[in-house]
Write a structure and sequence with these properties.
By secondary structure, the chain is α/β, with parallel strands linked by helices. It has 9 helices and 7 strands; from the N terminus they run βαβαβαβαβααβαααβ.
Length: 253
């Protein structure tokens, strides 16, 4: 097991799914974790109760609101007086059809880009300023397979937002490596989370969703969390700028 003792790590969207698994695995590796949540306070509080208040700290922020990410960063860093790693995991995925009314289409695009890309960029900006003063740090952004292969017509905006996350991450890696700031992206395909079970599987059926995955099944949230732990360790700094695919070989670049 990688030892992250002494590190303080901020995980956005940490109350469920990939985020919750990431919080727990980081804790197992010895890190103190700032768990950001949007609306699921009860689920977030259960995780804190399980891990202990000395090791896990709750911060609420609605990342759909302009500049909410700035306040989130300030509150997160106030807990232990530092942040060593940030994991931008919070994301929004809601459908938008080209047949929707223009106002509905525009609102969905704006909300998706605000949560999935602009809030991520705002947090990266805060982290870069801070890490430059602290002789370095690590940024891990959760993107998606859709950033590379695209998505279905109702999720064009989601794929576009995640494509932006990839470009953002690569630009940070290139632009701030000299400041010892490492930036990585993780691009999962289908991951068996509560949201996928409740929405995609019910709508399309699991067999339909997994038919193009050679491994024959969706990834587990822990599959992603384990990669986050490795990247957070800083053990391979020259991999900065890398995107790690977690999709069971359903899309090989």
């Amino acid at each position: 097991m990688i030892d992250l003792t002494g590190k303080v790590i901020l995980v956005t969207g940490g109350s469920q799914g990939i985020g919750a698994a990431t919080v727990k695995v980081l804790h197992q590796a010895g890190a103190k974790v700032v768990l950001h949540y949007g609306n699921s306070r009860e689920k977030a509080a259960e995780i804190v109760q399980e891990l202990g208040e000395d090791s896990c700290y709750l911060v609420q922020a609605n990342l759909a609101e302009k500049n909410a990410a700035i306040a989130l960063w300030k509150q997160a860093i106030s807990w232990q007086g530092k942040i060593d790693v940030i994991v931008n995991n919070a994301g929004l995925i809601i459908p938008a059809s080209i047949n929707d009314e223009l106002e509905t289409w525009n609102q969905t695009w704006q909300q998706t880009l605000q949560v999935n890309l602009i809030a991520v960029a705002d947090l990266c900006r805060e982290a870069i300023h801070y890490f430059k003063q602290q002789n370095g740090g690590i940024i891990i952004n959760i993107a998606s397979r859709a950033a590379f292969r695209g998505d279905t017509p109702d999720y064009i905006h989601y794929a576009a937002s995640k494509g932006g996350v990839i470009s953002l991450t690569r630009s940070i890696a290139r632009g701030f490596a000299q400041d010892n700031i490492l930036a990585y992206a993780i691009a999962p395909g289908f991951v068996r989370t509560e949201r996928i079970v409740e929405t995609a599987i019910q709508a399309y059926g699991e067999a339909n969703l997994t038919k193009d995955i050679p491994m024959g099944e969706m990834a587990s949230p822990e599959d992603v969390a384990n990669v986050v732990v490795f990247l957070a360790s800083g053990l391979a700094p020259h991999t900065t700028g890398t995107t790690i695919d977690i999709n069971g070989a359903s899309y090989v670049r």
